[in-house]
Each structure stands twice: as C-alpha cells, then as structure tokens.
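Example record used in the benchmark description.
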Amino acid sequence: MEKRVEAIADMNEDFAQWYTDVVRKAELAEYAETGGCIIYKPYGYAIWEIIQKTLDAKLKETGHENVYMPMLIPESLLQKEADHIEGFAPEVAWVTHGGTEKLQERYCIRPTSETLFCSFYANEIQSYRDLPKLYNQWCSVMRWEKTTRPFLRGREFLWQEGHTAHATGEESLAEALSILDIYCDISANVLAMPCIKGQKTEREKFAGAVSTFTFESLMHDGKALQSGTTHNFGDKFSRAFDIKYLDKDNKQQYVHQASWGVTTRLIGAIIMVHGDNNGLVLPPPVAPIQVIIVPVASHKPGVSEKAEELRVRLEKISRCKLDNSDKKPGWKFAEYEMKGVPIRLEIGPKDIEQNQCVIARRDTGEKITVSLDALEETIAETLKNITKNLYAKAKTRLDASTYTATDLAALKQILDTTPGFVKAMWCGDDACEIRVKEEATATSRCIPFDQENVGDTCFVCGKPADKMVVWSRAY
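Model output (structure tokens):
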C-alpha cells in the first residue's frame, strides 16, 4: 500500500520510532508526567474496553466471578512466599509514609495479587464444599521497569488477573490450560493474531509456579511478544499461607491454585502485528469504529442527510460513526487510515443519484462500489473478510518467519539476519539455556504443545534431546 502519511517513520527503516509514532498519531496514548506511565486516550482505552468486555463475558460463561483486592500489600504478607517475592523484588514500588507519618510497616503497590488472594482464601475456604473458587480481578498493577514503551512495558499497566482455588492438582492444571485456550481463541478471532502456545521452561516460568503456560505472538519486525500467561501453582502457595480444606473423608488437605492474566500489552501486539506505513490497522472485532462514513461534497443538497440515514442503518450492525465535520475529505481519509478503521464509506451527490456508495478496505486499500439496497449485507460480509484476511496475512508471516536450527551458530545467524521464531532441540539443561541468552541474546519462548522432531541432539551442547523449543529475541 502506498505511504500517504509523512508524519510517521517508515516501519522498515525504524520500527521502534514507527511504533511510537503510531501510538501518538492514532491517538491511542500519550506520555504522562509520571515517569514510565502513559495516559490512555479515549480511542486506545476503547480498544481495551472491547478486549475486556469480550474476555469478561467468556470468563463469566465458565463460572468465574469478579472481585477486587486492595492495591497495597503489607511487606510481611509479600514475604510469606520466598520464590515469589524474590522474583518481583527488583520491580516493587514501596509506600513508606501515610501523610507525614512514617509507616510502621512498608506497603508495596501490587505488582500482582497472589499474596492478597492467598490471605483471603485462607479465611474463606474451610470445606470441599467451598471449592472451587473461580475469581478474577480487573485492575492496574505497578512494576518499576527501567526501560518503558507504551503498552508493551510500563510502570503502571492495566490487566486482569485470575486467581482460582481447587481441590486437586489435576483441577488447577486443567484450569490453567482451559484459560490458555480462551486466550488463544480471543487472540485468533478477536485480535486476528496467530500464536504459538506451550509451556515455559523452568528458567522462564513465573516466580512461585509449578508450571507456566504461554501464548507467544510474532511481531512485524520478527521479535516475539509474550501475549499472556497462565500458571499452575499446585499447593506451593497454599502451604506458605496455610490454605486448607476439609475433604469428604473429614481430612485436612491443602488447596491447589491457578493464576492467569493478560494486559494492555495486547494493544501493542495489535499495532505491531497488523500496522503498516499508513498507521494502525485494526481487526474489526476490536475496532472502536468499524465503519466511518465520510460525505463527499457535503455542502450539496441531500448529501449530509443521506450520510446520516446510512449511519442510522449501519449502527444496527456495526460500530459506525459519521464524520460530518468541515475538514476536507482527503484529510479525513488519512486520519481514519491512521486510526486503522476497517471500512471507510464514501457518499456523494453522484453516488446518491445512482443509489450507491463506495467502501474502502483499510487492510487492502481496495475500493468497492456497493448498492445501497445491499449495504448492510455487504458491510457485514466485508468486516468478516477483513478479519479473516488479517489473520491469514499474520499467519503467513509467522510461518515464513519460523526457522529450524541444529546448532547455536545457526540460530544466531538466523536472528541476526532474518529475525523470527527458531525451532531447535534442547536437552533441558539450564546451562544450555543460559548460553543461548548470553551468546545469541535470545530466550526460550515456550516448549510448544505441538511438538516436532527437528533433530535428535541439543543444538547447544550436542547431548541427546527430546524437547523441541521455540527461541527468539523478544520484547
């Protein structure tokens, strides 16, 4: 597609600057006075609201309920689970004063809420009849990141965090895996974003978890993005917090727990997976505006009235907006391309005479003349086709950017020249994983559920290997 917006960098020349330009020019977010934080502007927040609404409905369908925990966690509570606090210690922000008085105990601003939920569950759960507890929280968290980038990595960000309690380890594991399936379904069908799902290695798993599962997405520049994770805690946290229940045989048992979350990082993923040199490209299911109506020669009799009539018709089947401002049509075209609106509908005097309009697809730039008599059907079908096309394009790019390496030198060369996902066999030795990070500045993204045999030996040390791991450089 020809580049028409000179206000943003070329994504193929300076991807990082292109990303920042799109975030600001598409009016998704702006930098805040608070260092490392952003202001979610209405258009950017509307995308998060759609993701939130979609996921919230799916969680409620599966029996989950929303709760809300305090944002402050006493230091003594945080220290009850040693592995957990060690993993988060460098990122914790502390509150030391209340007004002018120094607090007797420090409070941390939640980096995550495991400890709060555990303390709550220790009092809430008494019997097997109290299980399972399927709770979810929508909130913000704070992690004192040194290097920040809007949506991808910030000191304060929005997310949901599920924290569930179960009678057995089989149930907590099933919970973690079923939520991962929900995440991947939304990724594919709402965000039009393909992913690879699997289990994190011991080195990359969440602090305090028995096992961590992830869905990994590939960005346009060939870097990976951890788009969401789920965790099986087993009874590790319940033992630290003494969360027990009386089973059917009247015996005390420790509960088993799961945790899971996605964040506003998904907005960053949408930008980097689908965007182009004209700005944002939004999949219709997540677009705040799915159809923008732009009258042409709106000063002429009947044009504004017809445009409003079409808006009323289309708002019944889509998120539709009419721009009847006095800005020139060409300016409006560029603006809504930058904002990634899936369909632009143009209507002018000649179109009205011929009972037609012109629709332009944001994903392909294709213009189609449509009869007004079949407008609703055409718009609905086009929105579906755009979603399918965006997913297909992203999947084609992911497949074309997935390689195989049989030794560390080959992996490094691939990532230096043609970044993407690299499949390679791994022996499971932590030392080999560390070597990959040090020598290739790459990390294991996951041990995919869909395993392939791409060799018999570890690509790092040459020892026998039976795990295929996906490696990449990542955000």
